[in-house]
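Dear Dr. V.,

Thank you for agreeing to look over these. As mentioned in my earlier message, I'm a first-year student in the group and I'm still getting used to reading structure tokens, so any feedback on how I've presented them would be very welcome. I ran two proteins. I've put each sequence directly above its structure. The first is here:
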Amino acid sequence: MSRDHLPSAERSADSVEAPFLELLARGATADAYEQPVLLARAEGLPDGRVAALEQAKLLALRVRTEIEGRRRREAELSALFETAHDLAGLRDLDAVLRAIVQRARSLLGTDIAYLSLNDAVRGDTYMRVTEGSVAARFQQLRLGMGEGLGGLVAQTARPYVTDDYFKDERFQHTRTIDAGVQDEGLVAILGVPLMIGPQVIGVLFAADRRARVFDREQIAVLGSFAALAAAAIDTANALTDTRSALDRLGRANEIIRDRSAVIERASDVHDRLAELVLRGGGVHDVAAAVSEVLDGTVEFTEPGGTSPKAVEAARADGHAVRHGDDWVAAVAAGGELLGALVLRGHPGLDPVDQRTLERAAMVTSLLLLARRSASEAEQRVRGELLDDLLDTRDRDPGLLRERAARLHADLDGPHVVLAARLDVVAADAGQEAGARRRLWSAASHLAATRHGLAATRDGGTVLLLPLGPGDTATTLARRTAKELGTAVQEAVTVGASAPLDRLATHPEAVAAAYTEGQRCLEALRLLGRAGDGAAAEDFGFLGLLLAGDRDISGFVGRTIGGVVAYDERRGTDLLRTLDAYFASGMSPARTKDALHVHVNTVAQRLERVGRLLGDDWQSPARILEIQLALRLHRLSSHGPR
């Protein structure tokens, strides 16, 4: 059927709708839909035709509105989908929040969009993201809780909108907020809450610099973006918490590994120190073991060997203390300071290594105490054996040798008895007793290191020391006086006996030798030689004059004993020859006349005397002693003549 044959009503309707369909197809503006109606009126078309065009216009505008609404919803859904996609792949929270604000501004067609977050620490709200803002003061706003439009949104957890901010009295205006809004030139503002569960964490805003009414759809769209923003923040917080938890777990694992290594190292230290104690190691063995564990140099120092202040601080605190680049741990037992362990050049010391050094100091103190106890026990045993020899309580040679062997002493070798005494005037009895204890301790140590014996007697100390190769009683006495004096820091005088042999079979000789050493000690003190050492042989007949108890037989034996023994063994007349020689003015010719022998016989006898008494027997000092000894021998053997 042709168009011409259509009913007139249909043709009229078709011609009325056509211009509006063309406008819909072109997507023309709403103003353009007035043109067909105006044109019909201008052409003077019938009123029915104009009314039909008016009706078609309204229908077309409704269709146009529906199409635009669909397009807008499609754009909104697309923006929401993209935002959700961004949220699903969240890597950077700031980037996601910026995208949300940008899309909200674009969809709502506002001049500016921005997002604020609550700061629980400072108790206020701050701008987190802005889009379209040009005022620096506005971008840096911090708002008190409950202030401005955002404060109202946060309090009620509901969206709020104002078409003219400065005329709206529903919320609290402040100078700071108003100044920032005025700088930005904002008039109409829409705010919706950012919520995680029931809690408002911030506000998402859309605003224009002119008066504007936001419809429900726009409020709903901004609310949807706010929900996505809140989800993004919640997800980011969860990720942050997860990362923090992972970091804490990582640190915990590191700590566990470190603690495991520390426990293993502490166990190693414990095992090493226990092994040292069990096998009788010394303090320097402990220092060497700890040096290896701490990867440094650890030294044991005697009291006063390192900084007294640092040692005293460590002792008072009960822990190792830092001293410059070193660490110092006091070695103490009760109230007595025994020394210190010093870790050299190791300023960075963690608490575990510090405890290792402190534990080593404690083990060192135990070793020192054990060594002291053992030393004191050995000193007592040595003193008891020497006491028995001096008092001749034990005369069994086998038992004496066995007791001496346990102390690493040999009573069958040559020995010297030494009497030692301090020459110091103490301020009180306590100081004097302390000095005597130090002398006894030093003498005991000397006896132990020299394989001898020591005991206390008569307010002093007596020692029985072996005579080494090349030593004489005199050199041994002087060396002993020097060593004891150095050890106690006081003058120590030492008198020595003549050498003794085979003490196990002749223990009674020890008491006589001690008496001789005491006389020698007294002679030294009377001669003003305190702090020196000498033997009886050094004094000759002066020893007789100075000694309180005259030892005539001892003097005769030391001076001419060799000649007396030779005459007794061989039946010779060396003593009579010596008497005649001195009586004849030491002239061999006159001596041969007195003895009625040939001069060669006199010469031979005097040569034998020289071999027995020594090459210096005719020196003035020796001549005096020999003549006195001859006189005393004659008197003691035959009585005065």
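The second protein is here, in the same arrangement:
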Amino acid sequence: MGCCELDHEHEGHGHGHEHEEEMSLKKIILSAVLFAAGIVVEKFIAPSAGDNVQMVRGIFLTLYFGSYILCGLPVIREAVEGLSKGKCFGEAFIMALATIGAVAIGETMEACAVMILFQLGEYLEDKASDKTKDTIEELLDIRPDTACVIRGGKEVVIDADDVEVGETIIVKPGELVPLDGIVSKGSTMVDTSALTGESVPREIGEGEEILSGFVNARAVIEIKVTKEFGESTVSKILDLIENAQGKKASTEKFITRFAKVYTPIVCILVVAVAVVPPTILGWNENFRTWLYRACEMLVVSCPCALVISVPLGFFAGIGRGGKDGILVKGSSYLELLSRAETVAFDKTGTLTKGVYEVTAVEVAEGCSLSKDELAALVTHAEYYSDHPVSKSLKNFHTCENCGKLTVEEAEEISGHGIKCIVDGKKVLAGNKKLMLLEKVLGFNENIDSEKKAAGSVVYVAVDGVFAGKIIVSDVVKENAKSAIEKIHNVGIPTTVMLTGDTKDNAQAIADSIGIDEVRAELLPQDKVEEIERFMENRNGGTVVFVGDGINDAPVLTRSDVGIAMGAMGSDSAIEAADIVIMDDNIENVALAIKLAKKTMINVKQNIAFSIAVKVAILGLCACGFVNMWLAVFGDVGVCLLTILNSIRLLKKK
């Protein structure tokens, strides 16, 4: 890996790269052996060599020269190549110039030491960076290249890219699912951890959707393909990961610009240190002293710690998120998310399950019906209706009479409800307007004035007398309340619900889970307008929107950071979002914010540490208080420490 750029290519992890690293280590070891032998000859044999001192001196200089060539020749070659391309401020050029200058003034031993430690630092940096890349590459193993498809009544193994939509593929136990589809035969348990980060296996049966990247854990299944290979879930995910660094954070861009300005300025200072003091003080012994200090400054000046560790920090953050089922499309979104001050949520499918259920059955005072009898009457009255409320009633109540009923004189009154006769009883089921229209006895239009129901209320009358009510709600996700608590706990002051639902329903749900503000009865364009209002009134932070539906795509795009619930979310929402939560776990929104904040802290630590240490050592070098060894630490040591700090993000916490 070049020290002044982070290579994100994956082919570098193959056999050739490992062989190159092995050869590099062998050269470093051999160079260190020659260097150690030279020190032994110079320090312990030369002093007692007598008349043979010149011959002994030639021996240890030869050993030093051999040591320098082994480690330094690749660096010098890289420096020459850089100069030919107009890159005169690369680290290779700076190191070559500094060590050649040291040799010129007779500091051969220190020149060798600098080059050995520089190459050792490069090797260790490669190993540390590889650890981060390997974490990303683990995700690249979830896309199979082939699929077993049924053609002409036979099983044929072909490239997954050649399977067409509508064809049937077979997936055996232990195999990866190559394409998205619907299970057409069989049932099994699947391991979804590679996609969602969820370790608990999931059971999937006939008629259910199955995604590419899942691992079939139990039985042979047949899958009818619904998406081409390039459009499959796993392909899209890997495209997101591989292209994540395409959208750089402003911090990364700043560091790149900083390095381009910083290095030339330091080089000018180095030349000034080498030339100005000797010009003033005299060129005899003073020239050697100041040239040595200039060489030290050259060694410490290279900004590789910044140029490598900052993008590596973001890359590690993206990799950690990928392992947790949080896919970030670029480092810029991590930076924006770390500054979030408002998080807005869609309601249906995000905070709620998007499935209507009967949540309460209340029998009116004085009514002789039981709750089960009341539910049965209403279900039978609405059995043939396709209204979502009717469907939820059917799921709530079933009996042997369901499906065999003859509902007499059924009349659906638009905007009110239904009126019919069931088992000889005149049944009314609908809203308050229906009760008032039919002048139902015992019904008070202020019946819910003290307590708002979190859902749609179906009022029921039997034979003209109020019998009770059934509440049908879009059920709140079990972890929605804890998710909002966690979001507040990671430092988000304001949470908002944006929904097309009624104000009463929305407010009731918001109150139950701890949402701070509610904007209800909104159309998709209204949600965009609300997000823009929050963005106009923000206090330096960013506005985040979390959604999952097709109608959420515009607001996901407009917000500073759009987060889509990926496993059940629509393709358009996932495409429009900047971050995708693959397992639909709303609690992972807080985890994503926490990860973003940790990533930015890590990046800022690297920046502050690198600049502080380099400036301090540069000053000490100019004043002559340090030697070349500390200068090496100021470059290679600082770079390695910042890289190790970056890969801490990969650890599970």
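From my reading of the second output: The two ends are 29 Å apart (CA to CA). DSSP finds 20 helices and 22 strands in the chain. Does that match how you would interpret it?

Kind regards,
E.
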